[in-house]
Specification:
- By secondary structure, the chain is of the alpha/beta class.
- The protein folds into two domains: 15-136 and 270-297, Rossmann fold (3-Layer(aba) Sandwich); 138-266, Rossmann fold, CATH 3.40.50.2300.
- Helix content is 41%, strand content 18%.
- Strands 2-1-3-4-5-11 form a six-stranded parallel beta sheet, sandwiched between helices.
- α2 (41-57) runs parallel beside α10 (270-287), α3 (74-88) runs parallel beside α4 and α7 (199-212) packs across α8.
- The longest helix has 18 residues, at 270-287.
- The chain is elongated, with a radius of gyration of 20 Å.
- The N and C termini lie far apart (46 Å).
Length: 309
C-alpha cells in the first residue's frame, strides 16, 4: 500500500487548474461517492454542485451515498460500494469523499489497478496512486479562524474546541489550524472534544463544558452543525455572550449568523470543490491530463455579519 500524508502549508498550484473548463466529447460515466447522507448541509451542497457540473459538462454522473451520519462505520459500506463498481465494469471514473483516509486505500487501489481513475474530494486518501486530491485548505482556514478569534477577543481569552471525527484528516488539519491561529495571541485552550461533526452531540458536550468551566470566552467548532449545537446549549443561559464560530459557510451556518446564533464561519465552497473534481476527471478521461497530488481551493474567507451578503 502506498501512502501520502496531507500536510500544510501546501505549495500553490497554477491558476490554469481552476480556470480551464472543457465539455466532454463522450458521455463518460462517473461515480460520485459521498461521505454521508446528502441530508447533511455540506454534502447536500456537494451533491447539487456535482449534478450541475455534470449537466454543464455533458457527463453521466451517479451519486452514491449512505443514509447514515458521518461515522467510521460507513467505511465498510464504501469498501463494498467500490468493489461493486469494479465488478460492474460500467464506470469510467470515481470521485470519492472518503470516510477513512487509511482503511479505504486497498479498495481504491484495486479500482485503480482495474483501470478506473480515482479523485479524492474533501478528505484525502493516503495513496499516491490516485489522480489527485481536491479539497479546501483546512489548515489555512482553521488558522484564519483562530487569528480572527484572537483579534475579536483583543489578544486574550479562553477557548473550547469542538473537533470533527478523530480519523478524518480534514478534522485534524482544522484543529491544527485553529491552534496555530490562536497562538498569535495569549489564548488558553481549556478543552478539545470531538462531537464527530454532529449537532446533537455538540449540544451535549457544550452543556457539559458549561458545567465544568465558567470562563469560556469562545467555542470554536470544526463545522457549522456543531456550532449550531453549541449555540443551542448556550441559548437562554447566563453564557449567551460566548462567541461561537463554525466552519463550512453553508446555508444553515449563514442563516445562524444572520440570526445572531453564531458569530463567524469559514467559506469552504463545497459546490466549487465538486465542480472542480468533475472537471479534472473529464480532462483526464478526455486527454490523459495529470495533476498535482493535492489541489486546494485557495479561499479561506472568514464570514461574519459584517461581510455576509
Amino acid at each position: 500500500m502506498s501512502t501520502k500524508q496531507l500536510s500544510s502549508p501546501v505549495s500553490q498550484v497554477s491558476d490554469e487548474i481552476f480556470q480551464t473548463e472543457i465539455k466532454a466529447t463522450k458521455p463518460w460515466k462517473i461515480a460520485y461517492i459521498l461521505k454521508t447522507t446528502p441530508k447533511e448541509p455540506y454534502w447536500k451542497d456537494v451533491k447539487e454542485g456535482a449534478e450541475k457540473a455534470a449537466q454543464n459538462f455533458n457527463v453521466d454522473i451517479t451519486i452514491i451515498n449512505s443514509e447514515k451520519p458521518q461515522t467510521t462505520e460507513f467505511v465498510e459500506d464504501q469498501i463494498i460500494l467500490v468493489a461493486n463498481l469494479i465488478k460492474a465494469e460500467e464506470i469510467d471514473g470515481i470521485i470519492i469523499g472518503s470516510s477513512d483516509s487509511i482503511r479505504l486505500v486497498p479498495a481504491i487501489e484495486k479500482a485503480i489497478n482495474s483501470g478506473i481513475p480515482v479523485i479524492a474530494m474533501d478528505t484525502p486518501l493516503n495513496s499516491d496512486r490516485i489522480l489527485t486530491f481536491v479539497g479546501f485548505d483546512n489548515f489555512a482556514g482553521g488558522k484564519s479562524m483562530g487569528e480572527w478569534v484572537v483579534k475579536k477577543l483583543e489578544g486574550k481569552g479562553t477557548v473550547a474546541i469542538l473537533d470533527g471525527a478523530p480519523n478524518h484528516d480534514n478534522a485534524i488539519q482544522r484543529r491544527l489550524g485553529f491552534m496555530a491561529g490562536l497562538k498569535t495571541g495569549n489564548m488558553k485552550i481549556i478543552a478539545i472534544e470531538s462531537a464527530n461533526w454532529e449537532q446533537s452531540k455538540a449540544q451535549k458536550i457544550t452543556k457539559k463544558l458549561l458545567k465544568k468551566f465558567d470562563n469560556i470566552d469562545t467555542i470554536i467548532a470544526a463545522n457549522d452543525s456543531m456550532a449550531l449545537g453549541a449555540s443551542q446549549a448556550v441559548e437562554n443561559t447566563q453564557y449567551s455572550q460566548i462567541i461561537i464560530t463554525g466552519f463550512d459557510g453553508l446555508e444553515n451556518g449563514l442563516q445562524a449568523i444572520k440570526q445572531g446564533k453564531i458569530t463567524a464561519t469559514i467559506n469552504q465552497a463545497p459546490k466549487q470543490q465538486a465542480r472542480l473534481a468533475i472537471q479534472l476527471m473529464i480532462r483526464h478521461l478526455e486527454n490523459g491530463e495529470t495533476f498535482p497530488n493535492i489541489i486546494l481551493l485557495p479561499n479561506t474567507e472568514v464570514i461574519t455579519s459584517e461581510n455576509l451578503e
